[in-house]
Design brief:
This is Aspartokinase. This protein is an alpha/beta fold. Helices cover 40% and strands 21% of the residues. It contains 13 helices and 17 strands. An eight-stranded mixed beta sheet has the order 5-7-4-3-10-12-13-11, with helices on both faces. β1 (3-5) and β2 (8-10) form a beta hairpin. The radius of gyration is 24 Å and the shape is globular. The structure holds adenosine-5'-diphosphate and aspartyl phosphate. The site of aspartyl phosphate has 12 residues, from loops.
């Protein structure tokens, strides 16, 4: 017979079914944690694995606290503003959820010790930085698991680095290694079979395979934790809950008229993330694509909104442009040479060095403060997209400095000056997504399909 854990019925035969990942903005306070608990319980038919990021802006605050600790001296660590903000937020959250302070007490003590250690050594390595930021996820998950248990929903907290998330030792931007999948599956599945409880897993974190130290997966890495778990356990769906209605037609901070993109392929989503859309971690689509597990991007502030569904394939016949992405502050190398053949490997070196080397064989211009505008869409309509894009940019008086349509089947990139980039995004968005009237060329192209 099924045993009931809060609203969630857990029977012996039930398997874990979905991953629900909640980002920092979704769990930024006690009130938000209550709402997230409510969201999880609103799907009683699901057996979720929950992945959490650090509360609110905790990761940024930890990084700043670490930087300040390097130069402030041991005695003044207790005065670091960011450390006090972190401490106050977590203590307040625990109190408001009526949990014992012991839930995070040891963590806060250790964190203070660590900041003092950094102050004493006057040094902050990448390895120590990863250990430092890991406290964010370690605390949010402990609080949330304790809260679920308190309201009668059986939950179990896991630190990703203890359950088989094995990574490279690239601190700050580690890659997940293959061994992770069977290890994580064995641990989460084994525990679930033995003693069902909702797993609450730290996002963003892993364990370096050589060093054995805590690593992080790059900013926004909790998305990757979620998709890795989805693939490891072969789950039905991976849900990433954010503070926007899904993947949007452009960054809403750049242009607020952005609207939700209802469907995307893994390829489109990966390209979008890779070219700078903050909404998804650049590597996060890989496990989902490999495991062929749908990813749903949802808004924890507006759960009724349908969100974005990302799958292997979608109907592309009527698709022209899907989304516009901006990557600012890029450096462009303009190389003119007839002697480049066979000169491989040069880009692997440092930029200054690359320029120095290239100057021996070419005329080189280093152009800084440029921006890449990526047009993610149907490349079968690339002529149409580019024709329209150039029309719009010409009208706005913008000079496109380079254009590229790489091997990817879903992306065309334009390089413009940084100072003109936002204005370009706005003009392109208006033309592609807001003007109802199709140009003659578009009509023709769509009729031919
Ligand atoms: N194309 C886009 N679609 C949706 N959000 C975007 C896009 N580009 C940038 N963003 C930004 O990404 C944010 C969500 O990503 P992120 O902060 O990583 O969420 P979370 O921390 O909840 O995982 C949004 O609040 C929005 O400001
Ligand atoms: N907390 C980490 C990892 C993460 O994924 O966060 P978020 O889901 O809030 O983007 C970061 O800020 O990078």
């Amino acid at each position: 017979a099924a045993e009931t854990l809060g609203g969630i019925g857990v029977g012996g035969g039930d398997q874990l079914s979905v991953v629900m990942k909640f980002g920092g903005s979704s769990v930024s306070s006690a009130a938000r944690m209550r709402e997230v608990a409510g969201l999880i319980l609103a799907f009683p038919e699901e057996r979720p694995v929950v992945v959490l990021s650090a509360m609110g802006k905790t990761t940024n605050l930890l990084l700043l606290a670490g930087e300040k600790a390097v130069g402030c001296g041991v005695i003044r660590v207790s005065e670091i503003e960011e450390w006090n903000l972190i401490k106050d937020l977590h203590i307040k959250t625990v109190e408001e959820l009526a949990l014992p302070r012991s839930v995070i007490h040891t963590m806060l003590d250790e964190l203070e010790q660590l900041l003092k250690g950094i102050a004493m050594m006057k040094e902050l390595t990448l390895r120590t930085t990863d250990y430092l930021v890991s406290f964010g996820e370690c605390m949010s998950t402990r609080i949330f698991a304790a809260y679920l248990n308190k309201i009668g929903v059986k939950a179990r907290q896991y630190d990703a680095f203890d359950i088989g998330f094995i990574t490279t030792d690239d601190f700050g931007n580690a890659d997940i290694l293959e061994a992770t999948y069977p290890a994580v599956a064995k641990r989460l599945h084994g525990d679930w079979i033995r003693d069902p409880a909702i797993p609450i897993v730290t996002g963003f974190l892993g364990k370096g395979w050589k060093s054995g130290a805590v690593t992080t997966l790059g900013r926004g890495g909790s998305d990757l934790t979620a998709t890795t778990i989805g693939k490891a356990l072969g789950l039905r769906e991976i849900q990433v809950w954010k503070d926007v209605d899904g993947v949007l037609t452009c960054d809403p901070n750049i242009y607020p008229n952005a609207t939700t993109v209802p469907y995307l392929t893994f390829e489109e989503a990966a390209e979008l993330a890779y070219f700078g859309a903050q909404v998804l971690h650049p590597q996060s689509m890989r496990p989902a694509r490999e495991g062929d597990i749908p990813v749903r991007v949802k808004n924890s502030y507006n759960p009724k909104a349908p969100g974005t569904l990302i799958t292997k394939q979608r109907e592309m016949d009527k698709v022209v442009l899907t989304s516009i992405v901006l990557k600012s502050n890029v450096t462009m190398l303009d190389i003119v040479s007839t002697r480049m053949l066979g000169q491989f490997g040069f880009l692997a070196k440092e930029l200054d060095h690359v320029v120095e080397e290239l100057e021996k064989i070419a005329v080189v211009h280093l152009l800084q403060q440029r921006a890449i505008i990526s047009l993610i869409g149907n490349v079968r309509r690339s002529s149409l997209i580019l024709e329209k894009a150039f029309q719009v940019l010409r009208k706005s008086g913008v000079n496109v400095q380079m254009i590229s349509q790489g091997a990817s089947k879903v992306n065309m990139s334009l390089i413009v000056h940084d100072s003109e980039a936002k204005q370009c995004i706005k003009a392109l968005h208006q033309a592609f997504f807001e003007d109802d009237v199709l140009t003659e060329v578009e009509e023709e192209a769509l009729h031919m399909s």
